[in-house]
Amino acid sequence: MIPMDLYKGMSDFYNSFVQKNRNYKAIATELIENFGDRKDILDVGIGTGLLVEQILLLRPELQISGVDTSASLLAQAQECLGARVDLYCQDVVDMHLNKMFDLAYSRGGAWAFVNDGHTILLASHILELDAIQRSFERIAAHLRDRGRLIIISSNSNHSKCENLDEEVSFQRTVTKNWIDGEQYLSLDYTCHKQGSLIGQQKLRMRLLEIDVVEEMLKSANLRLVSVRDNQYHIYQKEVSE
Hints:
Elements: H1 11-21, H2 24-32, E1 40-44, H3 50-58, E2 63-68, H4 71-81, E3 86-89, E4 101-106, E5 111-115, E6 120-124, H5 129-141, E7 143-152, E8 160-163, E9 168-179, E10 182-193, E11 196-209, H6 210-219, E12 222-228, E13 232-237
Parallel strand pairs: 1-2, 1-4, 2-3, 4-7
Antiparallel strand pairs: 5-6, 6-11, 7-13, 8-9, 9-10, 10-11, 12-13
Helix pairs in contact: 2-3
């Protein structure tokens, strides 16, 4: 099954937008403090590889693999990272990589924690509850005993507009809504050149209360071990009996 490319309509402008909004060197520096001596790493939702590029500059000995559903973003990651990283166009819900990892992390690629001003919620590109559960189970299946999953907080639930250059502007409009009693984020990305629309992508993310997420992770044999700086939610795979 070929995964849906959620970012095809904005892939040409993605790097320019995120580089204006994120200091990837600082993000990488903080993230790898949570790696310890773990060497085999999986980036869930690697995108164009900007974060992994910075991680490898700081820790070139790491063995990193990346999975993403977007072929268009992965093509850019391949140009950025070359042969240093194994890249897979797969959906984490059905992921089979034929390798095991010491640690996996997601910073919005599949899931991220967001603060809606009142509480911490999980935002997931995976919309169905049973599919979210399977995604956690597939991660656990690819982690060695005591391997860890880090789900990172993100600020991508806020609307934002940036001028990429003198002619091109990029806008992300985020709205929160309820559908059939469930919470979602709707993200509308648009890119204009001299006032004319040249790129557009609409995404939806499922929002889940943190206690629901904790139970789903426990069911997948992943237990919370710490929350660092209110940003890094760290889960550990329990030892198989």
